[in-house]
Design goal:
Largest sheet: 2 strands, antiparallel
Radius of gyration: 25 Å
Shape: globular
Strand content: under 5%
Number of helices: 30
Number of domains: 3
Strand order of the largest sheet: 1-2
Helix content: 55-70%
Number of strands: 2
Distance between the termini: 58 Å
């Protein structure tokens, strides 16, 4: 950085440190932390809410306000991810795997402390890299077009090998299903409806939020409800000791923090990828690179927390790169920030690194200071947060479910969001207990649509010559090596010898019904695709056929080799199942009971609106299931009701569905807005 740039950076810092601008930065940070804690809300909704309030602010204050919010949602979203197994935002999905396992092991304070420290360092590192790259933004990004973006996305898909544990075939098959799920809806090129069941909801594609919450959040809450115990009955460390251990973990793994922070900043700079996959990229990289990851990841390894948390905060600095240089938002939150550019008369491009360089560096400093403030506030309240893991389940579940339902509904403000949440909750619970890895499914879902779109564009322009472009060739080679790495490890490093013809007498188990059902679903999907336009058939049918082959091999291997002494079922890189002292039968009945509670919640919502539904659910679950005091129950009803009304109804102006009561008595709308 030359002297002139350093002078501009120092001047920008002095401008930002003025009391008024610090106030707006602090307010944005506090709001961002609060939104990150609430599952399903996230920074995008917050930025949309704040954008109108920036009209009367100067550019420095406006961007400090907005970036303060956006920079820290990936810090506080760790809290529900660690304590409840519920991703606060899409950027904390990978944190659930080891973070929640640590909480169940009595290490909630250690996990939270490590996450905050990694988020802080990752965020600062991302801001620093942004500051360094500003002078060379344009020449770098000019070389990234559709083929390069496609190659990056394919490389991302190759991470399924690292996210599958010792079950690569199951991981690949789930990734295939994830890609097919991303194709549900209208074909972006032809308009052909694919697997929509003639429903308007599916025409616009499946939203990520209810799918992710269903796969990862509901199964964990369901297991807590079935065990009827606290998330953790013990605490391995005293509060201060646990926090110090977490800090030492981050300092000990500083090189991992630096690498994952750099990876997060790079991925953030690639338009279209962003927060939905950055944590999985970092987690997959760590699972491949750190020592003994195959034995400890998914079971409470602190490095599985450090890696994604370093990356998801660093991505904010990276996502500003294409926004500033070309006006191409690197994420949904950056798209809203671009609206702030327009409000204040700023034009992305050359002027942002010349005439308005001071504003640009103000953004860099805003990200850095917001990360410091956000991490500091989280550290200050870590003790209170960690204690939540030891609370009675009847005090935790009603609040989490109520907020989760509302958060999932925000995806597209349709009843379909809630049905999607429940359906994928059942699917996620089944996959978890049958040891079918869930991370590859969500990775395939996020990247599948991106790969299909970029593949079409790249082929139309370059045909197959796009694979020969230097960046593409390198990324595709790395993707191939990543997919083959588990095989190479088993053959050449572990020296495993597996006789592929060592069959035994067929042994069919009830658990094999799951892959059989998957095969049936794939065959139905293949048959139904023949009625589409020819241009819409190609990609889905190729993915279906590949997935059919992989699942067929997996099922055949299980049935025909299960009795062989050398057969190894392996373990999925996922959260483990804990039945406690219960038998499988009693456990399953309790799971069924919990899902009936959720169905009752939706029925009450349909009849009387969200406020009535949440109140009845809280009262019913706390009094009937948990025998909690009337005073405690009443307090819960009031707090959750106020949260829904003031934050979601009055703050975000959610378009609530019409209830049966409102249909019968429309005049009640003026009395109860959420009805």
């Amino acid at each position: 950085m030359d002297a002139s740039l350093l002078d501009v950076a120092i001047t920008a810092l002095s401008v930002l440190l003025e009391p008024e601008r610090l106030f707006y930065l602090g307010m944005g940070t506090i709001i961002g932390l609060a939104l990150g804690i609430m599952p399903g809300v996230g920074g995008v909704a917050g930025l949309a809410l704040l954008l109108p309030f920036t009209f009367n602010l100067d550019a420095y204050s406006a961007f400090a306000f907005m970036l303060g919010l956006g920079a820290v949602t990936s810090t506080s979203d760790t809290i529900p991810a660690v304590l409840f197994g519920v991703p606060g935002t899409s950027a904390s999905q990978a944190t659930v795997l080891d973070g929640h396992s640590m909480a169940k092991n009595g290490e909630a304070g250690r996990a939270l402390s490590a996450a905050y420290a990694a988020s802080l360092i990752g965020g600062l590192w991302g801001a620093f890299l942004l500051g360094l790259t500003i002078p060379v933004l344009r020449p770098i990004l000019l070389h990234i077009n559709s083929p390069e973006l496609l190659a990056f996305s394919i490389f991302g898909l190759s991470m399924v090998s690292a996210l599958s544990g010792s079950m690569p075939l199951r991981g690949l098959s789930m990734a295939g299903f994830g890609i097919l799920l991303s194709m549900v809806g209208g074909d972006p090129q032809t308009g052909q409806e694919r697997w929509t069941f003639d429903t308007l909801y599916l025409v616009d594609d499946l939203p990520l939020l209810p799918v992710a919450l269903g796969l990862f959040a509901l199964p964990e809450i369901c297991d807590v409800a079935a065990r009827r115990t606290a998330i953790s009955d013990t605490s391995k460390y005293e509060l201060k000791e646990g926090m110090l251990v977490g800090l030492r973990d981050v300092l000990k793994n500083w090189w991992l923090v630096a690498k994952c922070g750099s990876l997060g900043a790079m991925i953030g700079a690639i338009p279209g990828l962003g927060s939905a996959v950055v944590d999985w990229f970092a987690y997959g990289y760590a699972a491949k690179s750190v020592k003994d990851a195959d034995k400890t990841f998914g079971k409470g390894d602190v490095r599985g927390v450090i890696a994604p948390e370093s990356a998801n905060n660093a991505k904010e600095g990276g996502s500003l790169v294409p926004t500033i240089a070309f006006g191409v938002p690197g994420s949904a939150s950056m798209a809203l920030l671009l609206g702030g550019f327009m409000i204040h008369g700023l034009v992305p491009g050359k002027s942002m690194v010349t005439d308005n360089l001071d504003v640009t560096y103000t953004m860099v400093w805003s990200i850095a200071l917001a990360n410091i403030l956000g991490a500091g506030l989280c550290f200050a309240f870590s003790g209170q947060f960690a204690k939540i893991a030891t609370l009675r389940y009847t005090l935790v579940i009603p609040a989490i479910i109520s907020i989760m339902m509302v958060g999932a509904y925000q995806a597209s403000a349709d009843w379909g969001d809630l049905f999607t949440l429940l359906i994928f909750g059942v699917v996620g619970w089944t996959m978890k207990h049958l040891k079918w890895p869930r991370p590859p499914l969500i990775l395939g879902f996020v990247l599948g649509g991106i790969v299909e779109d970029y593949m079409r564009i790249s082929y139309q322009i370059y045909e197959w010559a796009w694979v020969l472009k230097p960046v593409c060739a390198v990324m595709l080679t790395l993707a191939a090596l990543s997919l083959l790495q588990p095989l190479f490890t088993r053959i050449f490093i572990k020296k495993e010898k597996v006789d592929i013809f060592a069959f035994s007498s067929p042994q069919f188990r009830m658990t094999d019904l799951f892959p059989v059902g998957l095969l049936g679903l794939l065959i139905w999907a293949l048959v139904s695709s023949f009625g589409w336009d020819e241009e819409s058939q190609g990609a889905p049918q190729v993915i279906i056929l590949i997935t059919l082959v992989i699942i067929s091999i997996t099922l055949s291997n299980a049935i025909l080799r299960r009795g062989n002494a050398g057969y190894f079922e392996g373990s999925a890189l996922d959260l483990s199942s804990d039945l406690g002292s219960l038998t499988r039968t009693s456990y399953n009945f309790r799971v069924l009971e919990f899902f009936l509670w959720l169905c009752g919640f939706l029925f009450a919502w349909w009849v009387g609106g969200i406020l009535v539904a949440s109140a009845l659910f809280v009262i019913g679950y706390m009094r009937v299931r948990g025998d909690e005091s009337l005073r405690m129950t009443t307090a819960y009803v009031v707090v959750i009701g106020c949260l829904i009304y003031f934050v979601f109804d009055q703050g975000f102006h959610i378009a609530w569905p019409e209830s049966l009561v409102r249909t019968m008595f429309p005049e009640l709308r003026g009395i109860i807005p959420t009805i």
